[in-house]
């Protein structure tokens, strides 16, 4: 309000000054012979000298109030824009006819752009540091898993194999005559075999999940061939050749490892079937066993393995479906859409 009053007062003073200067120049150029006539002259019953004095005052007041109000609004807009800039909000641009205020608005916009670029740079640096820390942590985890896997394979796994061979030799070559003791020894042998399966499943978990330069088909084949040599289970597989993105290969291979590990630990299965094919631009990974099965709904809420496999499938735009019935085995199927590039052709 003070700003408006100041502008009005200045405008009034300016108008009065101009009126006086014009009057002086006029009367100097055209002097009057009788000043008394000027005092008696009226316009619409209003004395002429009063009009000469009041008109500049009213005109100056109106002009000052209008200019002061306009200037106050423009300063208010600039103040609001500065407040938005301080709060890191997007500046609301107002059309400004005056060049001076328009230049200030442009400078505020440039300042906001610099703040935005600095924020992007800080976020980018923070993301890079986080990625570097995560990568370093992953490398440490992989090295530790490799070390544990080697130690378990060289110590516990070898000892379990030796104990298993000794129990098999005892039960086959020199079985005890006592039926109760014989059953107990056979039970111990089964427990040792189950422990071997648990150990192989654990080693499968601890292995590096990455394919390390191999194709998905090569990794699947090597894994299943190794299982046939170490696990007393009938394993068959059907793996077709096709090209697929590296990210999808890694996730499918990890899902296969997780599923096979769960089968070895919990299913008590005698057969395992794996199929990896492509149909209608969809990659299908199907794993079937004839184990004891489980309640899918209960396991879905509590099983970390199922959640992990589901998340891996989701990361590559796929779906995971699990069907399992008591004493009728388990069927796990992953479907991932294959998005081909225009220049991509299958071999």
Verbal overview:
Helices cover 67% and strands 12% of the residues. It is α+β, with helices and mostly antiparallel strands and 347 residues long. Among the domains are: 2-94; 214-347, Heat Shock Protein 90, CATH 3.30.565.10. The protein is rod-shaped.
Question: What would a concise description of this structure say?
Answer:
The chain has helices at 2-29, 35-40, 48-86, 99-173, 179-206, 216-230, 246-267, 296-302, 304-315; strands at 42-43, 46-47, 234-239, 271-279, 282-289, 319-324, 330-337. It has 347 residues and is α+β, with helices and mostly antiparallel strands.
What's the topology here?
Elements: H1 2-29, H2 35-40, E1 42-43, E2 46-47, H3 48-86, H4 99-173, H5 179-206, H6 216-230, E3 234-239, H7 246-267, E4 271-279, E5 282-289, H8 296-302, H9 304-315, E6 319-324, E7 330-337
Parallel strand pairs: 3-4
Antiparallel strand pairs: 1-2, 4-5, 5-7, 6-7
SSE order = HHEEHHHHEHEEHHEE
Report on the biggest sheet.
Answer: 5 strands, mixed
Radius of gyration: 45 Å
Class from secondary-structure proportions: alpha+beta
Number of beta-strand segments = 7
| Percent of sequence in beta strands | 5-15%
Name the features:
Heat Shock Protein 90; two-stranded antiparallel sheet; five-stranded mixed β-sheet; 347 residues; alpha+beta; 9 helices; 12% strand
């Amino acid at each position: 309000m003070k700003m408006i009053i100041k502008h009005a007062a200045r405008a009034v003073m300016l108008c009065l000054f101009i009126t006086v200067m014009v009057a002086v120049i006029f009367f100097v150029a055209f002097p009057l012979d009788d000043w008394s006539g000027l005092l008696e002259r009226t316009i619409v019953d209003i004395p002429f000298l009063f009009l000469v004095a009041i008109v500049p005052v009213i005109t100056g007041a109106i002009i000052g109030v209008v200019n002061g109000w306009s200037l106050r609004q423009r300063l208010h807009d600039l103040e609001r824009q500065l407040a938005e800039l301080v709060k890191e909000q997007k500046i609301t641009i107002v059309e400004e006819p005056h060049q001076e205020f328009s230049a200030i608005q442009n400078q505020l916009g440039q300042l906001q752009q610099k703040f935005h670029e600095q924020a992007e740079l800080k976020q980018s640096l923070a993301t890079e540091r986080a990625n570097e820390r995560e990568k370093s942590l992953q490398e440490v985890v992989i090295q530790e898993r490799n070390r544990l896997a080697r130690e378990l394979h060289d110590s516990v796994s070898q000892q379990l194999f030796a104990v298993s061979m000794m129990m098999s030799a005892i039960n086959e070559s020199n079985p005890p005559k006592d039926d109760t003791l014989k059953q107990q020894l056979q039970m111990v042998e089964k427990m040792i075999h189950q422990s071997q399966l648990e150990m192989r499943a654990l080693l499968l978990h601890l292995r590096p999940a990455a394919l390390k330069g191999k194709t998905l088909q090569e990794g699947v084949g090597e894994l299943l061939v190794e299982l046939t040599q170490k696990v007393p289970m009938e394993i068959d597989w059907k793996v077709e050749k096709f090209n697929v993105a590296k990210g999808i290969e890694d996730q499918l291979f990890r899902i296969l490892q997780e599923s096979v590990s769960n089968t070895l630990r919990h299913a008590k299965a005698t057969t395992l079937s794996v199929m990896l094919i492509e149909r209608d631009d969809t990659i299908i990974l199907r794993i079937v066993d004839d184990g004891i099965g489980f309640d899918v709904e209960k396991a879905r809420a509590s099983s970390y393995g199922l959640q992990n496999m589901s998340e891996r499938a989701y990361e590559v735009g796929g779906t995971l479906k699990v069907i399992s019935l008591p004493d009728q085995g388990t069927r796990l199927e992953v479907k991932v859409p294959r998005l081909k590039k225009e220049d991509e052709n299958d071999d």
